Amino acid sequence: MSELENLCDIMIFGGxxxxxxxxxxxxxxxxYSDGYLTANARIITLSxxxxxxxxxxxxxxTKLQEFLPEGAFEPEKFERFKKQLRLVTVDFTDSQSYKGLxxxxxxxxxxxxxxxxxxSPSFFGSICQSLSQWELITEKSRVVLEKPIGRxxxxxxxxxxxxxxxxxENQIYRIDHYLGxxxxxxxxxxxxxxxxxxxxWSSDNIDHVQITVAESVGVEGRWGYYDEYGAMRDxxxxxxxxxxxxxxxxxxxxxxxxxxxxxxxxxxxSLRPMTPTDIEQKSVRAQYTSGSNGGEAVPGYQEGExxxxxxxxxxxALRVDxxxxxxxxxPFYIRSGKRMRQRYSEIVIQxxxxxxxxxxxxxxxxxxxxxxxxxxxxxxxxxxxxxKIPGLSENMHLQQVELELNAPMNNQRKPEAYxxxxxxxxxxxxxxxxxxxEVEAAWKWTDAIIKGWAANMTPMKKYNAxxxxxxxxxxLIARDGRSWHDE
Length: 487
Ligand code: BG6
Description:
The protein folds into two domains: 4-146, NAD(P)-binding Rossmann-like Domain (Rossmann fold, 3-Layer(aba) Sandwich); 179-417 and 429-478, Dihydrodipicolinate Reductase, domain 2 (2-Layer Sandwich), CATH 3.30.360. The chain is built from 13 helices and 17 strands. The chain has helices at 18-33, 53-67, 75-81, 99-106, 124-133, 153-164, 182-192, 223-248, 257-270, 276-282, 417-426, 436-454, 471-478; strands spanning 8-13, 42-47, 85-89, 112-117, 141-145, 172-174, 206-214, 283-289, 291-293, 296-298, 315-320, 332-337, 344-351, 370-376, 380-388, 398-405, 460-464. It has a nine-stranded mixed beta sheet, with helices on both faces. Strands 3-2-1-4-5-6 form a six-stranded parallel beta sheet. The chain has a two-stranded antiparallel ribbon with strand order 9-10. Helix 1 (18-33) links the parallel strand 1 and strand 2. The relative contact order is 0.14.
């Protein structure tokens, strides 16, 4: 099941950073060993570190052993893979330091060039400028920008403007790795290849939607970054907004990149802006205090490196309203947090109850139908339906049962999000990447809440690590007579 792709040079700026070792190198290792990268494709790490190529290769080997899934590292495969690895020492603030990269790339000027900027966004502009100065941007060049792009609409516009001086919009790939997850792409398959859902998918039949991305881990050593961003900028503005778009968007006219992105941007533009009263009533921000994780005691957020007295939220819950015909009166409740009871991401589509129950008089209680799309760690799609309990009793008794859909994988390895996305960049397919207007529309909507929080319209709540978040999140949905679907 392999297919050889175009000859390419893949540059990873910030290639000795956490993301590069945790996600990008493992993804490239799999693409290479599964035959999706041609044998001559070069993986060029750009880093400030001064080391020779053999030290770099040894470092990559150690990190792959650490971050690849158990049993996936194969010494013979690595022997072949390592021949493609290069290291160029570059100081991103000094354009003179790009000479080595120029020499390397000039060996194959005809190749596709993927520039993956896995650095702080503050370097995006200077890196692009240096690439341009050294004439390293060709028609076959693409640039990949990691999220979050900026801290708000204004800073994101500054960054995008800088990059757009050197690359055309169709050469820019703004990554949101949730879009590379197979289960997330399956939302499109589920909605648009099953006639069954078509007439049901609107306010006529849907009561509300819940989207939860809960993590049991904390900040994982990324204190400097996280404390600047928090849950709203790190998760809601991008991953949760994208999930919401996939659930709420109209059917695109094709799978062509702009058709899908056009529909997503329409959803983002239909989000009802939050007024100060809405911010107070429909948003929750909270920070975790000490508690436990998998039975072990864990410290609170404020006990992390250099974040004492921090006002950064590690949990957010929101009620989102979409002002369009399809979703009028259907709230979307979304929440995401770190150090929660367990790691799970799911989307719950809660249908309305039947208009009239013929079972009401014999005490049978009818639960509403639910479609539960579990994205991770368990991957499943469950449809909850009512069914008669078999038996001869005079009164008909009902129970809720689940129809479960599991994609047969025939023991195949499921590709990681970054494999899919890197391959799409190499193939020049931008469908799963965010267009400029999408990023801006998402910032525009979240900015109002961030500003409201800065003005203290919603007090910061606390929750113990290892729980389902603060009680304020329960009240947020309970106020509307509903409750969270907690696993
Ligand atoms: C990243 C965030 O984008 O997504 C992290 O920066 C978060 O804070 C991660 O932990 C979650 O991704 P996943 O794929 O593990 O759900």
